[in-house]
Specification:
Length: 397
């Protein structure tokens, strides 16, 4: 099949590699002048790592990732540990692949280099998808500069503001979640020695939380802070904001948080508004479909948006292989993705209630309940449904 992918982000490139691996003729159309990603971290569970492994990329990832030992939930001011979820070798043994922290530029670079090695002429830059037309035989992708390209299938992997989504489901505004995110990275050498174990530290507090973890062989520390804020609506991932406001947002928080914020380069604080997409039950036509944030953008509270985009690429590829027509393949793909991605979107939103309690007692109650649930669940941690999913082998219904 001749497959056109709008969007060369993590989702679009993973899908391109999966579809190419299955023998399709794949082209990627990216609106930016070059393939790239921003300077922030990303967490990936075994469910996503299994897809990257199946693309033969593990050795490249091993050069740049950090494998955390645990996720530790801590009270915002005292730093008291409220709940801990083990990761490390036990997680890998249970789920068949490790848990990764990876710099976005690193994962994107690995995916981009892999695709450029096999099909450099199939990557179109400065190629902004504006819409598409469809006939019984195929699809025509229209670019904003007037060019058009024909194919058998169009995949909209063009992010939360997807132009392809508008063509498939109509104009529906992205949903404002009332949260803004801070992001910054700090060189580990700028921090006190033994700053933090190799874990994810998630400090939870009233109306905000902050997640801290190592990146790039522990050379960097990543900060992602989420704050409920009705005022800030700027959605750009590259909008800078003042260090003083970041500092003020976490005034009175634990020493680890303070030490990290104090070391953040003053002109390298980014802040952007968090939108998501309310779940829908149909995102395909006969020859076009959506993938990643274009289909199911979520709040980041389960750290799973990119993982869902990665899973989508493998399931789309398998669904097309399994069914005898493109339309049936697309129905199979979305049938096998909608329930899981809807659960991610809804559970991520619900996690806001857990992370943003009004007071310390509320947090202690929430996390005591989480500990009890984990202890009662002999089959594994309560969030096992996320990691045990294997996109390469899960039975397609
Ligand atoms: C604060 C925060 C933390 C997060 N942390 C995690 C995490 O730890 N783990 C995790 O799994 N997920 C995380 N996510 C979610 C993750 O970032 C997204 O789900 C993921 O980037 C989606 O990938 P995508 O390829 O679908 O879309 P995008 O990353 O948005 O990529 C879309 C691509 O399409 C291009 N494009 C846009 N419009 C067009 C067009 N019209 N034509 C052509 N190209 C176009 C863009 O330039 C871009 O390259 C987090 C998100 C946030 C906000």
């Amino acid at each position: 099949m001749k497959i056109l992918i709008a969007g060369g982000g993590i989702g679009g490139l993973t899908a391109a590699l999966c579809l190419h691996q299955a023998g399709h003729d794949v082209s990627v159309f990216e609106s930016a002048p070059e393939l790239g990603e921003i300077g922030a971290g990303i967490q990936l569970g075994a469910n996503a790592v299994k897809v990257l492994d199946s693309l033969g990329l593990r050795a490249e990832f091993d050069k740049v990732v950090v494998r955390p030992e645990a996720v530790r939930f801590r009270l915002f001011d005292t730093g008291e540990t409220l709940h801990e979820v083990p990761l490390g070798q036990a997680y890998e043994d249970r789920y068949g692949a490790p848990y990764f922290h990876v710099h976005r530029a690193d994962i994107h670079g690995i995916l981009a280099r892999a695709f450029m090695q096999i099909a450099p002429e199939k990557v179109h830059l400065n190629a902004h998808a504006a819409g598409f037309g469809e006939s019984a035989d195929g699809v025509t992708l229209r670019l904003a500069d007037g060019r058009s390209f024909e194919g058998d299938l169009l995949v909209g992997a063009d992010g939360i503001r997807s132009a392809i989504r508008t063509g498939i489901v109509g104009e529906i505004e992205a949903n404002w979640t009332g949260n803004v995110a801070w992001r910054a990275t700090v060189e580990t050498k700028r921090l006190p020695a033994h700053f933090m174990d190799t874990i994810v530290s998630n400090f939870v507090g009233p109306r905000k939380h902050v997640v801290i973890y190592y990146l790039r062989r522990r050379e960097l520390v990543n900060l992602v802070g989420v704050v409920e804020n009705d005022q800030w609506r700027d959605e750009s991932w590259t909008s800078k904001s003042s260090w003083e406001e970041l500092k003020a947002d976490y005034d009175g928080w634990a020493p680890t948080v303070q030490a990290l914020i104090d070391a953040v380069p003053k002109d390298e604080c980014y802040r952007w508004a968090l939108f998501n997409r309310l779940p829908i039950d149909d995102w395909s036509t006969g020859h076009a479909t959506l993938l990643g944030d274009a289909a199911h953008a979520t709040l980041p509270f389960l750290a799973s948006g990119a993982a869902m985009a990665i899973e989508d690429g493998r399931i789309l590829t398998r669904a097309l292989e399994q069914e005898s027509s493109i339309a049936a393949g697309l129905q199979c793909y979305q049938r096998n993705r909608i329930e899981r991605t809807t659960r991610i979107v809804n559970t991520s939103t619900a996690m806001g209630q857990v992370y943003h309690q009004p007071d310390a007692d509320g947090f202690r109650r929430q996390f005591a309940a989480a500990r009890e649930a984990a202890a009662a669940n002999t089959g594994g941690p309560p969030d096992a449904w996320l990691a045990e999913y294997d996109p390469n082998t899960v039975k397609l219904v």
